Amino acid sequence: MPSTATLTERYISATVRSLRPESQDDVRAELEASIADAIEARREQGEDLPAAERAVLTDLGDPGILAAGYAERPLHLIGPRYYLTWWRLLKALLWIVPTFAAVGVALAKILEFATIGETIGAVVVAIIMSIVHVGFWTTLVFVVLERTATDTGATWTVDQLPELTDQGAGRSEVIGSLIFLVLAAGAILWDALRGFVRDDGVPVPILNPSLWPVGMTVLLVLLLAEATLAIVIWRQRRWTVGAAIVNTILAVAFVVPAMYLLVSGDLVNPGFLQYLAVEHAAEMAQADAGAAAQGGVLRILTVILGVVIVGSGLWDIVDGWIKTLRARRS
């Protein structure tokens, strides 16, 4: 008999010790009564007292879980109430933050005249650290929300149900692509014919006029090919492996010559640079003085333009393959 009482008391004590003092007596009394009733029921079925008590306490389970139920404490980091909001936000941040971190670190390292190995190492570290920080801090915020029962305002309504659409490329996607390509072609022609910059009424092209007619014709043909590809994908209502391959070829065909011309100094019109040096000499001198450690303002602009060219090409390639994989899964 003493060992039986001790076993029950140990279980009750383990349950109530993590509860608020004002609720411990009530929970203790409730558990004593319910355990005694359960033991009595088993004894009426022929079990002896030690076996009946052990079976009852085993059925009640871990006293920590039982105590959490009495205290209404969650035993999970993020429950159903916040899980989807946390997951959607985390996925968005894991796309955005590491990307910007990598680009920012790469720019800084290039402007510091770091070696390729140093730049790659710093970018990898930045990506890993940003992923760790995004995952930790985002999860921590929702853990606090879970335990304080704070209302995030993210309530679901039937108005959020998506419209039934085809799984392939939509009309809005092809329209957006065509508008961008038309604007790009228009900007190239405007720069050559009318000029975004004018010196006493005379156009000063930003792009090197020596690229006409061959180089610019090739660029316009690439833009036309991109437009044709967008229309073909829309007519097929889906991305295919063939479309992704063509998209990759077109992106490489744009990025490689553009980067070659940029690095060799043949992309920008020397007359435009001369115009800046003469008409904005004071501003250029001040900017060069402030960016002397990074090789001057023109080097900074060249690096930024190069990152934009390569980044846009890589994004176009990756986006095309992601859409292709989604189409194949659907």
For this entry, give a set of tags.
330 residues; mainly alpha; 3 domains; two-stranded antiparallel sheet; 2 strands
Number of helices: 12
Q: How many independent structural domains?
A: 3
Give the tally of β-strands.
2
Radius of gyration: 34 Å
Largest sheet: number of strands, sense, barrel closure: 2 strands, antiparallel
Strand-residue proportion? under 5%
Summing up helix and strand content along with how strands pair, one would put the structural category as mainly alpha
What is the average of the pLDDT values? Answer: 81
Query: Low-confidence runs (pLDDT<50, min 5 residues)?
Result: none
Write the H/E string, N to C: HHHHHHHEEHHHHH
| Spatial separation of the terminal alpha carbons | 66 Å
Strand order of the largest sheet: 1-2
Percent helix, as a range, is over 70%
Offer a concise description of the structure:
This protein is mostly helical. It is 75% helix and 1% strand.
Topology at a glance:
Blueprint: H1 2-16, H2 21-44, H3 49-60, H4 63-71, H5 80-111, H6 116-148, H7 171-193, E1 198-199, E2 202-203, H8 214-236, H9 241-264, H10 270-279, H11 281-290, H12 297-329
Antiparallel strand pairs: 1-2
Helix pairs in contact: 1-2, 1-3, 1-4, 2-3, 5-6, 5-12, 7-8, 8-9, 9-12
Q: Could you explain the architecture of this structure?
A:
With 330 residues, the chain is mainly alpha-helical. A hairpin with a 2-residue loop joins strand 1 (198-199) and strand 2. The protein has helices at 2-16, 21-44, 49-60, 63-71, 80-111, 116-148, 171-193, 214-236, 241-264, 270-279, 281-290, 297-329, and strands at residues 198-199, 202-203. Helix content is 75%, strand content 1%. The protein folds into 3 domains: 2-71, no CATH class; 80-160, no CATH class; 171-329, no CATH class. The protein has a two-stranded antiparallel sheet. Helix 1 (2-16) runs parallel beside helix 3.
